[in-house]
Design a protein that fits this description.
Layout: E1 3-12, E2 17-25, E3 28-34, H1 38-41, E4 47-50, E5 55-58, E6 60-65, E7 70-71, E8 74-75, H2 80-89, E9 92-100, H3 107-118, E10 125-131, H4 137-149, E11 153-157, H5 168-181, E12 184-188, H6 192-204, H7 211-216, H8 219-236, E13 240-242, H9 248-259, E14 264-268, H10 270-274, H11 277-280, H12 302-311, E15 316-317, H13 350-359, H14 365-379, E16 397-407, E17 426-436, E18 439-442
Parallel strand pairs: 1-4, 1-5, 6-9, 9-10, 10-11, 11-12, 12-13, 13-14, 14-15
Antiparallel strand pairs: 1-2, 2-3, 5-16, 7-8, 16-17, 17-18
Helix pairs in contact: 4-5, 5-8, 8-9
């Protein structure tokens, strides 16, 4: 039996803060005991980690990543190997990525393809959602089978006509099926049909720079689609999870639904909390680095997002990590913003940026752990195996130095992308040591993990619906 003891840290979970030692046996948390008590002092182990003056927190759960994702004639630049290694560096020990059903294909083919990409390559544990691009009778039957196998959430798009887009009838059918089989529909809520009209008109006017990406993807069209998705889910009697909420008006739609007791959930991402249309408008072609969908919004929207997180109108912060290199990939859209691959890097930065939000007074320490670890684990059927530090949980544990200062930079990050969306940003707090199922993946700022340590993790259904 392998044993590790973490001594002297402040254990922070979504529900508690306690100065405690943590005993790990065979990859799981075996016990916690208050530091200095006879129970804790009696523990012996081959490995003793000193966390004095540090936080001991659950490994992060990033419920929204896109490794090796095909998009716009290219692929996301992080593989499952590089992306999960970067996740580990940032204190994230579980990702849930998106397998894709191609139009005309079946769900199983897409899922098998993603299993093949990930298996044997991941540094940390992983699960899958399923992108449903083609709703038909066969697809609906397959959804039932996937839920039984632990793929319990299905993403649909109200955007990207001709690629991932589903119309209202297809969305309703999938929601009805989810209502029956316990699955959760995740929605990219933007009115893609209307946006395409605005894109065409902008290009015809010669408005080709990256900043116009944000101007045509209007906040009102995010809000309209969010409202429509909520109503369709209500008709279907299904729960709804709205991904990458970026606009104040969309938050208001989710808040209104939740206030009436509907099972509607909302996610936002660090880019919407820390960046804005100012970045999209950076001179030259620099704004292309910040092209993602939903787009960055004017800075005034950030207050509503922070407020939504504090009030639990928004429950989760994920990254929507979908990196494309500036050189050779983002540059595909020079002279036509609509050809810039949509997506930004961030899987390595999420835990640190949210700790900075604690430092800045936006959220509490426990809320940090709640929105980054515990709630995504519950939302996607992984709790209490993931997302907490408690007896029986996987020993996914991060020793975090809340006082260390760092400067975020592409020169020092580990994501396979040639720029950082947060270049030069000085923040307080840094991951020091990361355990994944008790195995050291990062040891005092050195990578000690390996490709293939991370295993596929089947999921239960959303634990907010039991």
């Amino acid at each position: 039996m392998s044993r590790t003891v973490i001594r002297g840290g402040l254990v922070v979970t979504a529900s508690d803060e306690i100065h405690a030692d943590v005993l790990i046996e065979d990859g799981r948390v075996a016990a916690l005991a208050a530091t200095g008590t006879p129970a804790a002092e009696a523990w012996t182990a081959e490995t003793v980690l000193d966390a004095t003056g540090k936080y001991v927190i659950p490994g992060g759960v990033d419920g929204h990543t896109h490794m090796e994702m095909p998009f716009g004639g290219t692929y996301a630049s992080d593989t499952f190997e590089t992306g999960t290694r970067a996740a580990a560096w940032g204190g994230t020990t579980t990702i849930v990525d998106f397998a894709i059903q191609s139009v005309g294909g079946v769900l199983r083919e897409g899922l098998d393809a993603w299993h093949a990409k990930a298996e044997g390559n991941c540094a940390v544990d992983y699960g899958f959602h399923m992108i449903v691009s083609d709703v038909n009778e066969d697809t609906l039957k397959e959804m039932d089978l996937l839920v039984q196998e632990g793929v319990t959430s299905f993403k649909q798009f109200m955007a990207y006509p001709g690629v991932f887009y589903s119309d209202d009838g297809q969305i309703l059918r999938a929601m009805q099926r989810a209502a029956d089989n316990g699955g959760l529909i995740m929605m990219h809520a933007e009115n893609g049909i209307a946006i395409d009209v605005l894109v065409e008109q902008a290009l015809a006017r010669g408005e080709t720079d990256p900043r116009y990406h944000g101007e045509v993807r209007k906040a009102l069209l995010e809000a309209e689609a969010t409202h429509r998705a909520i109503r369709l889910a209500q008709v279907a009697g299904a729960p709804l999870y709205v991904v990458h909420v970026s606009a104040e008006e969309a938050v208001a739609e989710i808040t209104r639904a939740r206030d009436t007791g509907l099972p509607v959930f909302g996610e936002t991402c660090p880019q919407y909390l820390f960046l804005s249309t100012d970045n999209l408008a950076e001179p030259g072609f620099e704004g292309a680095k910040y092209v993602c969908s939903t787009p960055l919004r004017p800075r005034e929207h950030q207050a509503a997002l922070w407020s939504g997180l504090r009030r639990n109108d928004l429950q989760v912060v994920s990254t929507d990590h979908c990196p494309f290199c500036f050189s050779g990939q983002k540059e595909m859209g020079r002279g036509d913003f609509s050809k810039i691959p949509n997506g930004m890097p961030g899987v390595e930065n999420r835990m640190d940026l949210l700790h900075q939000a604690v430092v800045d007074g936006h959220i509490s320490r426990r809320r940090w752990i709640e929105i980054a670890c515990a709630t995504p684990a519950r939302m996607f059927g992984l709790y209490p195996k993931k997302g907490t530090i408690a007896p029986g949980a996987d020993a996914d544990v991060v020793i975090y130095d809340p006082n260390a200062e760092q400067v975020i930079s592409a020169e020092t990050h580990h994501m396979n992308v040639d720029y950082s969306a947060y270049e030069g940003r000085r923040i307080t707090g840094r991951v020091e040591t990361v355990l994944s199922r008790g195995e050291p993946v990062i040891t005092e700022r050195e990578f000690t993990g390996r490709a293939g340590h991370g295993v596929y993790t089947p999921r239960a259904t959303c634990q907010y619906l039991d």
